[in-house]
Write a structure and sequence with these properties.
By secondary structure, the chain is mainly β. The protein has one domain: TonB-dependent receptor, beta-barrel domain (Maltoporin, Chain A, Beta Barrel), CATH 2.40.170. The protein is built from 7 helices and 37 strands. The N terminus is likely disordered.
């Protein structure tokens, strides 16, 4: 059945394999480091890079990724055990990473060097959704203070995802032909997937192809979290433990070419993604199509004066939303409105260049620039009833262009002291065209929607906005001896609003709830007067460890003050801005984005230690503890979607080909909530996961059980459950149900390399 389901895709995999006549590992399992600011075959970068990797930064290589990648199809989920990281849940492949309480666009996310963005009013297609876990070779996470060379237009940190590195044959080795193929199955949700990586290479040239496919049904929680019944009028039946709108299907393919000489590397990749559907249990709509194409060109060269890197890329996205199988499609009595189609298209092009210039005494001057072009159209075709006769223009020719320059000095004062000082300036220009609603009216019968009033008000204002943003970073590292490192950091980081925060215009509740990328079930209205967010952060990291780092203890306390934080207030003027909307505490509401001051503080703890080396194998223990507190300083309200105190403890075991883990996941109850959003409180929980694998020379088997005791628990940052029913009406579905986590799930995977 599995082969039948994926026959067309598997044929394309086979065709790609034949064309490439090659093999490239999709995971980089052989452990070779990536090309760039690291050491490579034949291309040696001798300049020190220590300070550009802060102590609280984390690198996940193939070994760290392999134990997790078969348990999830969501790339963001691979970051779950990184200190300082949380997840804002979404669809099956679309979770949004959260760093120190700052999520989504407040985190700079790079995929193979490209600064990608979501093109959707619900942010259903974030950057990490465009690369499958099987294709990842390495992940670098800069939590909190980050160098200005890593990126701007963000507050919380930077996540850099790299696919497998191009490998070349050694001199005299001849042609190198290798690859891997694998498949996996996860029981909860009937998740089926397969992947293939191929490579052909000689000393100068590398040709590669990778592909993956996955499909899933709705998953089940660890118990009934709602009543059993029909998902919606005319739709199927959902049991009380089934999480509606959580099914998905996706495929990714990538074709690459790389050429090198002794000091330079040129790369080119084309990535194609097709998502026929993806349900979202915390959104009013589902994704019914997402087609994405990426072209990525890269250059890295070692010169006498230092290192030069350059990249150019282009992305084209076509995105569609509608009500999926678990949400009501026909409205009216008799039905007259066949759902609510929503379409988005986006084009992005970018270019960036940086140079690491070697100075005296091992110092480095790092300079560079970046340009990013972005165009977005978001329109909702007419579908009958009140959603006619025109097309609703949500964003018409949205424009967001970034121009950036940075300079950074890495100084080596003496063997014990390293410093990093950087400054970055960005000009961000935004604009959009005039808009109109479905009809040039303000209502349908007794229903007031203010489409004409709102569009006329928006069109009468100046849409052209230009922000001049400055980032500053100062890091100082002290290493008194081989067992201790200390790092102190100060930073100013700036982020301009995205197109949906500035330019969505309708106060009609039905339109507002379709503009929501935080998953709380509420509606949001844009604000043309928004200012950029400015965050000032101070942090300190201590790292105590043995010389071989077999045992490690790290602690990073931090404090962030944000000027003009983009929060929300109950809307004060418009169709949905009623007295009830202003005061209710147990319903979904309509809000408007506003600038308000905020502060966040917390601490990240990480530790690892060996326990025993016995005849039955090596045992070890590692753990992560995260705590973040966020508050709006104007209202004393909690910031939305901040993960409560949480911890993960992992008992590891390795013996021969065995690599096993017993994982205990803990989360405190969520009481610090955003009351303006009527955020839902969640109880605390503890989960037990088992993971295991056995490796031979050319094969590997993975297996495990997630949520061993099938516990019913709710995701603290999962948002409100809106996965079934009459979701078009703002309060046509029950309020107060948080999205539950996945119940017990068995998984297994096989991998063969050739």
């Amino acid at each position: 059945m599995f082969l039948m389901m994926h026959k067309k895709f598997m044929m394309s995999l086979f065709t790609g394999f034949m064309l490439a006549n090659a093999a490239e590992t999709a995971w980089g399992w052989d452990g070779d480091p990536p090309f760039g600011a690291r050491t490579l075959d034949e291309v040696v970068v001798t300049a020190p890079r220590a300070a550009s990797q802060p102590l609280n930064a984390v690198t996940l290589g193939a070994d760290a990724l392999d134990l997790r990648r078969h348990a999830t199809s969501d790339t963001a989920d691979l970051l779950r055990n990184v200190p300082g990281i949380g997840l804002q849940s979404a669809g099956g492949i679309s979770s949004l990473p959260v760093i120190h309480g700052l999520a989504d666009d407040r985190v700079r996310t790079q995929v193979d060097g490209m600064n990608l963005m979501a093109a959707c009013p619900n942010h259903m297609n974030p950057a990490l959704s465009y690369i499958d876990p099987s294709q990842i070779g390495q992940i670098d996470v800069h939590a909190g203070i980050t160098p200005v060379s890593v990126g701007g237009d963000s507050l919380g940190g930077t996540i850099q995802i790299e696919s497998a590195v191009p490998e070349f044959a050694a001199p005299g080795q001849g042609n190198l032909i290798s690859g891997q193929v694998g498949a996996f199955y996860r029981g909860n949700g009937n998740v089926l997937g397969a992947y293939l990586g191929t490579r052909w290479a000689n000393e100068k040239l590398n040709l590669s192809y990778t592909g993956s496919t996955v499909s899933a049904d709705n998953y089940k929680a660890g118990g009934d979290f709602k009543a059993s019944g029909p998902a919606a009028n005319g739709r199927g039946w959902l049991a009380g433990d089934v999480v509606g709108s959580s099914a998905f299907e996706a495929s990714n393919q990538s074709l690459g070419i790389a050429y090198r000489d002794n000091t330079q590397l040129f790369t080119a990749k084309v990535d194609i993604q097709n998502v026929p559907y993806e349900g979202f249990p915390n959104q009013r709509m589902d994704m019914t199509e997402n087609k994405n194409a990426l072209v990525n060109l890269g250059y890295t060269g070692q010169h006498a004066w230092g290192l030069l890197t350059a990249r150019a890329y282009y992305q084209k996205t076509r995105h569609k939303m509608q009500f999926g199988d678990d949400k009501q499609y026909d409205y009216g009595d008799p039905p007259t409105i066949p759902g609510m189609p929503m379409d988005t298209k986006a084009d992005m092009a970018g270019f960036l260049m940086s140079a690491d210039i070697d100075l005296a005494s091992g110092d480095i001057l790092r300079v560079g620039g970046e340009y990013q072009y972005y165009r977005l159209d978001d329109w909702w075709p007419p579908s009958g009833g009140g959603m006619a006769p025109n097309t609703f223009e949500n964003i018409n020719n949205g424009q967001r262009d970034r121009y950036a320059l940075f300079g950074e000095w890495e100084g080596h004062l003496d063997p014990r002291w390293i410093s990093l000082f950087g400054v970055r300036h960005e000009t961000i220009k935004m604009n959009t065209g005039d808009v109109h609603g479905y009809a040039e009216t303000n209502g349908m019968g007794m229903m007031v929607n203010n489409q004409l009033i709102d569009s006329s008000t928006f069109n009468s204002q100046d849409h052209n906005k230009t922000d001049q943003n400055w980032d500053l970073t100062a890091l100082l590292r002290y290493t008194p001896d081989p067992n201790q490192d200390y790092e102190f950091g100060l930073a100013r980081k700036t982020r301009s609003p995205n197109l949906y925060e500035r330019y969505t215009w309708s106060t009609w509740a039905m339109a507002a709830i379709m503009n929501n990328f935080v998953g709380d079930g509420n509606g949001y209205i844009g604000n043309l007067d928004l200012e950029p967010e400015i965050a000032h952060t101070v942090s300190f990291t201590l790292d105590w460890h043995s010389q071989d780092r077999s045992w490690v203890f790290k602690a990073t306390p931090y404090y962030t003050r944000v000027t003009d934080y983009i929060d929300a207030v109950r809307c004060g003027d418009g169709a949905a801005c009623t007295a009830t909307n202003a005061t209710t505490t147990d319903q979904f509401v309509v809000l408007q984005y506003v600038n308000q001051p905020a502060r966040l503080y917390g601490i990240d703890l990480y530790g690892q230690m060996p326990l025993a080396d016995t005849d039955w194998g090596r045992f070890g223990l590692n753990g992560v503890v995260n705590y973040t507190n966020g508050e709006n300083l104007d209202t004393n309200d909690g910031l939305y979607n901040v993960m409560p105190l949480n911890a993960t403890l992992i008992l590891t075991h390795r013996h021969g080909g065995w690599d096993n883990a017993l994982e205990w996941v803990l989360a405190h109850r969520k009481n610090d909530i955003s009351e303006v959003r009527n955020e839902i409180r969640t109880p605390g929980y503890g989960l037990l996961n088992l993971r295991g694998s056995y490796s031979w020379k050319q094969a590997r088997v993975d297996f495990g059980i997630e949520n061993l005791f099938d516990k019913l628990y709710y995701l603290p940052t999962g948002g409100a459950y809106t996965g079934q029913g009459q979701t078009m009406a703002i309060n046509g579905i029950p309020w107060g149900i948080a999205v539950p986590g996945r119940g017990r799930s068995f998984y297994t995977a096989v991998n063969f390399k050739f």
